[in-house]
Amino acid sequence: MAIYTERLSLHQYTKDDFHYFAPLLMNEVVMRYITERALSLEETQERFQKAVVFNKEEADIGFYYVLRKTDNAFIGFAKLVPFGEEENKKEGEVGYALAEEHWGNKHATEITARLVELAQELKQFDRLIGIVDPKHEASIRVLTKNGLTWYEDGEIDGLPAAYYKLEL
User: Fold this and answer.
1) Which ranges constitute the DSSP H helices of the chain?
2) Most buried of the four, 82, 109, 111, 157, by CB within 10 Å?
3) Per-residue pLDDT of the chain in tens (168 residues, 90 and over written 9)
4) Nearest to 148 by CA among 135, 134, 165
5) Which residues, 6+ apart, have CB-to-CB distance to 76 below 8 Å?
6) Which residue ranges form the domains of the chain, and what is each CATH number?
């Protein structure tokens, strides 16, 4: 399945798309606000397999690689996936990671806007959440521009995390 924005196309990962996955997760600069380190090849392969399996089971949501429409340049990664249940509400998580050369081009805002719109269209979730490193001001701006508001600080995988939400 593909999803489109004005400038971008988002495509669900399949088993043949590892070349669109590994460069981001194995890049220390890209991952500094996500895991605080680049992932190993083994860790990256494990995450990729989980994404592919999830995408096989879900036609409407999942893990995506992002291309620029004008030249099919690889921009980054995006996701719209279930997160959990809190207060009897079904939650979805929206997220992204961009290749360094595409930072500052408003691609993250455009991706997030489209995923929020998709979540609203599908009516599969009661709430969307975004999880960011509290020091990552650019990602906080992306979430707030798209209507998500801060609701708590915490941890994820032992790292500091700020949680943002949008009631759908």
Assistant:
1) 22-25, 28-31, 41-57, 107-122, 137-145
2) 111
3) 799 999 999 999 999 999 999 999 999 999 999 999 999 999 999 999 999 999 999 989 999 999 999 999 999 999 999 997 665 669 999 999 999 999 999 999 999 999 999 999 999 999 999 999 999 999 999 999 999 999 999 999 999 999 999 999
4) 165
5) 24, 65, 66, 96, 97, 98, 99, 102, 107, 108, 111
6) 2-128 (3.40.630.30)
DSSP codes, 150-161: EEEEEEETTEEE
**What residue type is assigned to position 73 of the chain?**
A
89-98 and 149-156 beta bridge pairing: unpaired
Using alpha carbons, list the distances in angstroms from residue 76 to 3, 53, 79, 97, 150: 14, 20, 11, 6, 25
pTM, entire model: 0.94
